[in-house]
Amino acid sequence: MRIAHVLRRLSFDDWGGSEQVAWNIAKAQLAAGHEVAIFATDALCPVAHEVREGLEISRFHPLYPWWPMPARLIAELDRKGGNPFVPGLGAALRAWRPEAIHCHAMGRIAELCLRVSRRLGVKTAVSLHGGGANVPLAEAKSLRSPISGLLPWGKAVDYLMGWARQIPMDADGIVCVGEDEYAAYRDRHPHVIYLPNGVDCKAFAAARGRSREGRDGLRMVCVARIDRQKNQMMLVEALARHPEMRLRLVGPVTQPDYRDEIAARADELGVAGRLEIVGALKPGSAELAEEYANADVFALPSRHEPFGIVVLEAWASGVPVVASAVGGLQRLCAANDGAAQLFAPGDAADFDAALARALRTREAMVAEGFAAAKKYDWRILSARLVEFYRGL
Question: Labelling 5: which of 75, 100, 220, 260 has CA 20 to 30 A away?
Answer without folding.
Answer: 75
